[in-house]
């Protein structure tokens, strides 16, 4: 796979491979050529991702609505540039 891209998980603020090291090919459906790979999630990867998401949800929801709105507006400005 020359110039192939390998995609990892972003869990708890960091990029990482799946815990069992298994990857799956990513194929262009038009050409049927493999152009990358993606980490395959195990049950423990999913558990870790869900626990991290719940911690983030609690932290986000504890911020005042005005502050959350300001953060979203700032993010929208960044995405628009």
Automatic annotation (TrEMBL):
<dbReference type="InterPro" id="IPR016162">
    <property type="entry name" value="Ald_DH_N"/>
</dbReference>
<dbReference type="InterPro" id="IPR015590">
    <property type="entry name" value="Aldehyde_DH_dom"/>
</dbReference>
<dbReference type="Pfam" id="PF00171">
    <property type="entry name" value="Aldedh"/>
</dbReference>
<comment type="similarity">
    <text>Belongs to the aldehyde dehydrogenase family.</text>
</comment>
<dbReference type="GO" id="GO:0016491">
    <property type="term" value="F:oxidoreductase activity"/>
</dbReference>
<dbReference type="InterPro" id="IPR016161">
    <property type="entry name" value="Ald_DH/histidinol_DH"/>
</dbReference>
<keyword id="KW-0560">Oxidoreductase</keyword>
<protein>
    <submittedName>
        <fullName>Aldehyde dehydrogenase</fullName>
    </submittedName>
</protein>
<keyword id="KW-0520">NAD</keyword>
<feature type="domain" description="Aldehyde dehydrogenase">
    <location>
        <begin position="15"/>
        <end position="80"/>
    </location>
</feature>
């Amino acid at each position: 796979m020359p110039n192939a891209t390998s995609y990892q998980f972003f869990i708890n603020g960091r990029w990482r491979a799946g815990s069992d090291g298994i990857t799956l090919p990513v194929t262009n459906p038009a050409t049927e050529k493999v152009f990358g790979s993606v980490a395959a999630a195990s049950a423990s990867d999913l558990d870790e991702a869900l626990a991290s998401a719940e911690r983030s949800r609690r932290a986000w929801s504890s911020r005042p609505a005005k502050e959350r709105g300001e953060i979203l507006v700032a993010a929208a400005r960044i995405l628009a540039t």
